[in-house]
Design goal:
Order of helices and strands: EHEEEEEHEEHHEEEEEEH
Largest sheet: 7 strands, mixed
CATH superfamily of the largest domain: START domain
Number of helices: 5
Shape: elongated
Number of strands: 14
Low-confidence stretches: 1-25, 176-191, 193-202
CATH architecture of the largest domain: 2-Layer Sandwich
Strand content: 25-35%
Mean pLDDT: 81
Amino acid sequence: MAKWGEGDPRWIVEERPDATNVNNWHWTERNATPWSQEKIKELFKDVAVPSDVATITIDEVDKLEGEASASNRKGKLIFFYEWNLILKWSGVLNNGSGVKYDGKITIPNLSEENDVTDLDIQISVKEMDQDGQILKDIMHKHGKDVVRDRVANYLASLTQEFSKGMILPKKDGIKPDSVKILTSGFNKKIDMQPVVEEKKSVGLKIDTTTLKINLKFQCKAMEFYDAMTRVEMVTAFTRGAVKLEVFKGGKFEMFGGNITGIFDELVPGKKIVQQWRYKPWPVGHHSIVTISIDEKDDHTQVKVVQSGVPTAEAETTRNNWEMYYWQSMKRTFGFGAFIE
C-alpha cells in the first residue's frame, strides 16, 4: 500500500526551497489583524466625499473591532475577516450657515459573508436640523459609494499583501497552476434543505434509526479533526458563519442555524462525539453523532455512527452529510484525490 507522497501524482510531495511544509500540504495560517487595523485606519483618514453643494470629509476611524486572517491549503488561499466599524465624518454646506456638522458611519458586519455592494452602511448626524438633514442625504447618496470603494481597496490590499509567500514555488521555481483565492465565494451561504420551521413536539414517540457512514480522506488524522473543530476551517467548508465552542459541553451552530448541537467528547485526532440536530426535527430532539478517526498508512479512515435520527429524515440527513460536509471538505482542503 502506498505511503504518504507515493502513488497518485497529485499527492506526490515535491522538494521546496525552504524544505518545510512541502507542496503546502498542511493548513497554514497568518494573522492579518494588526495589518488590517492599520490599513483600515489609513484608508479612512481624511477622505473627501464628492459634492457640489457641500464640503464633506470622512475624518477617521472611531471604533474598530474584529479580526482577519489568511490561510492556505494545497494551493488555495482563504481569507477570513470580520469587522465592526464606526467612522467619523463632518461637513458644511457651501451656501448654508457655515456651521460644521458631525456624524458617524456605522458598518456593523464587514465580513466575507457580505459582498461589498451589499454592505449595511448606516449614516447618522449629531444635529438633525434642516442643514444636517441635507448633509446626511448627501452622505447617503455619495458617501456610501466612497465607503464601498475604500472597503474594496482594503480587500484587494489584503489579498495582495497576504498572498506573498503563502504559495511557495516548486523546485523548478514555478508556482502551482491550481491556485485559487477564495474570498467572495464564501459570501454565498449554504442552507441545508429543506429549511422549514421547527416541528412542534406533541408528546408522540419519534420513530428513529441509526446511520452508519464509512469514509476515506487523503489527509492526516489531526488535519481531519482540525477541519471539524477549528472555527476558521469549519467556516471555510461550510461557507458561512459558524459558532463553535470546542470543549466538552460547548455548543455549535452552522449552516444558518440549520445544524446545532453540543460537544460531548473530544479526543484530538481520534474521536468526536456530538449531540446533533437538524432544524426541521421535532423541538428538543437530538441525535448522537460519534465520529471515529483512524489514521492509516496512505489515508485516514473515518467512521460516523449517528443514532436517534428520525426515520423520515434519514435519507435527507445522510445526503446532507455527504454534500455539505464530506464533499465540501474534500474540495476545500484537498482531502479527496478523486474530487475535481
